[in-house]
Write the structure tokens for this entry.
Amino acid sequence: MSYPDSLLDAMAALRSGSISANELALQTLERARLAQARTNCFLAIESETLLRAAERADLVLADARRRGVVPLGALQGVPLAHKDMFGRGGSLVRYGSKAVLDHASQQVATATARLEQAGALEVGALNMAEFALGATGHNAAYGDCRNAWNPEHISGGSSSGSGAAVACGAAYASLGSDTGGSVRIPASANGLVGLKPTYGLIPRTGSMKLAPSIDVIGPMARTTADLAEILQVVAGGDGIDANASLRPVPNYRSAVHQGVENLRIGVPTNYFFDVATDEIRAAMDQSLKALLAAGARRVDLSVPAVSEMSELSRAIVYSEATALHAPWLRSRGERYTPQVRVRASTGLAIPAAVYLEALQLRIPLLRQFVDQVFSRCDVLLTPTLPIPVPRRDETDVGAGASLWQILSRLVHCTAPFNYLGLPAITVPAGLDTRGLPMGAQYIARPYAEATLLRVAAVQQRAMPMPRLTL
Amino acid sequence: MSQPKQSTSESSALSADLVEGLAALVQVPILDAAMAERIAGGAAAAIEAVHASSRQVEPGVTFECEPSDYLRVLEALAEESASQERPRA
């Protein structure tokens, strides 16, 4: 049988028996090897583990078919791969760094454990920015992860391998983490749907910390329906992560079929489009048109207090990151790559009072934003990246004066929502003139992920991406 | 997360020397002056943003906000939305 295009297709094919988990795993491994050669998206391809797990999945699937029931585990036999930051109960987790190769986390990550319990398989461990401290996909320790559509360009980061691997078809979906845009940037740059959920929706238990006051885990996939399937499995408090919400988990699977009729789409008149290129603006216009054609309504509005939010977020991230890294910076700082060592040390120079002020300001600024924006619209539309996906050499160390400007623009539209903790989704918005993906970002009220999935599904149906062939 | 933005403020009092002094105080090694300068630039930009933002909220509002209430506030804002939507349904 030919390789199923989507995660939902794979689930259906596995259940019907038209493809076995073993066949699917073998085909996925071939894709993983091609993806690795093109993008360096894997830190390890774990063929033997995958094939052994596929054998077990085939037994479960065959038993379910024999008994005429749905197999145990919604994702039984489906190959996934994740950012190498999720604890596996004593196995090596690299965090994208060579500084911690002797540190095997004893923790088990709730999010990946839930996927495993649902029957999903793992192809291997994915590349990422060292300690998730980088938005481009550069990694001096393991080699840069490259863009799936054009390896001369950045994959985006920090969940760089997640973006490249899923785009190449080496996994049906992937979990990453997003502290400043680290799911949405690589998802957008590689033509995927990527979700930064509301703070607290997915438990972070057992995952690498960067800045616990802001960190969220988020999925990316090639289709909105695939992403909803993953979200359905991983969302909801686990009773361990004290900052995971215990609210009931909505039905995300059904949200993708609900359409956008009468939904109010907010178009910001300040900040978010200030640095957007004409081509990106045109892609956002197309995205909006797709939603209006499906019955949504446009609302133009000014959004409050966003211009400083990326830096407010950094005040928290760098303070917390330095506190987490300080013991390792003292004992093994030389094992960090130089650029990451700077980023992990920046909190040294941020006074504790400033860090706490950034945290204290967050609640009034969040209330203000939600009151002023979401009283007038249901979702806000911005570009994910306001600029075209940069080349790798434009964003490498020593790239020159334009480097800081490019780096700051990469997170211009994403980081404010990390500070606020609001949910945001990126959806493919076509290819630019160089053949690289563009993405539209939609933001909603806290815990309104289902609304974002409705919007993303409509846009994706109206603006399908061309198939990427390796 | 991206690299720290460099401060554009000429009046920034955060110098590389100060960074090196703070680092020595907590015994985190700093490689050289260039590293200290980059840390100073990134930290100064974040500090300036916090100051700028604090001017956008009512004085005293931070006395009414407890950072550890953040998750509860997110949940409450979600519930507000749900209660507003019920009459329409």
About this structure: DSSP finds three helices and no strands in chain B.
